[in-house]
């Protein structure tokens, strides 16, 4: 066991775990943050997507020892209340993008990363960006429409900072 100091959702945490423990397990088991889901355990489905600094990562294959001092953000983050996060969540509701809901936290985090990089993404950028995350229920088209809807709404709103 090794002690790791993590910055998760803006708060410091110290955990004592094996260096090879996936970040997903630390988030779910030690920090009780259950938004990110265990899907495949191989970094192939994206249900476990969280943000590491501003990049989406699949937390099921990221050893906690590689996180270092970088900020971890999950779907439970207060940052999801910033304007794009609220708009994005509402777009997923409006487009009925969730069927079972298992992939949605990962999809929301991946789309959040897109909006932090590109304020007005094209349909092609949205498709390419969201491609690594899978929906086993087959609502990909609704998910893409939700991200497009959020992008359209955000394009008409003044930019606001996170609270």
Automatic annotation (TrEMBL):
GO molecular function, one term: oxidoreductase activity
Domain 2Fe-2S ferredoxin-type, residue spans: 2-78
Cross-referenced CDD domains: fer2
Entry-linked Pfam families: Fer2 (PF00111), Fer2_2 (PF01799)
Alphabetical keyword list: 2Fe-2S, Iron, Iron-sulfur, Metal-binding, Oxidoreductase
Record protein name field: (2Fe-2S)-binding protein
Taxonomic classification: Bacteria, Pseudomonadati, Pseudomonadota, Betaproteobacteria, Burkholderiales
């Amino acid at each position: 066991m090794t002690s790791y100091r993590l910055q998760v959702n803006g708060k410091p945490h110290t955990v004592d775990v094996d260096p090879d423990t996936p970040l997903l397990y630390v988030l779910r088991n030690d920090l009780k943050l259950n938004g990110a889901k265990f899907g495949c355990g191989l970094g192939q489905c994206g249900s476990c997507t969280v943000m590491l600094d501003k990049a989406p990562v699949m937390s099921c294959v990221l050893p906690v020892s590689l996180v270092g001092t970088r900020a971890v953000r999950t779907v439970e983050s207060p940052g999801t209340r910033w304007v794009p996060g609220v708009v994005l969540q509402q777009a997923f509701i409006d487009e009925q993008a969730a069927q079972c809901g298992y992939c949605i936290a990962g999809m929301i985090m991946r789309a959040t990363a897109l909006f932090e990089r590109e304020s007005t993404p094209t349909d092609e950028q949205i498709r390419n960006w969201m491609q690594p995350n899978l929906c086993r229920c087959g609502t990909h088209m609704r998910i893409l429409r939700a991200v497009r809807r959020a992008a359209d709404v955000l394009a008409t709103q003044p930019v606001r900072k996170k609270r």
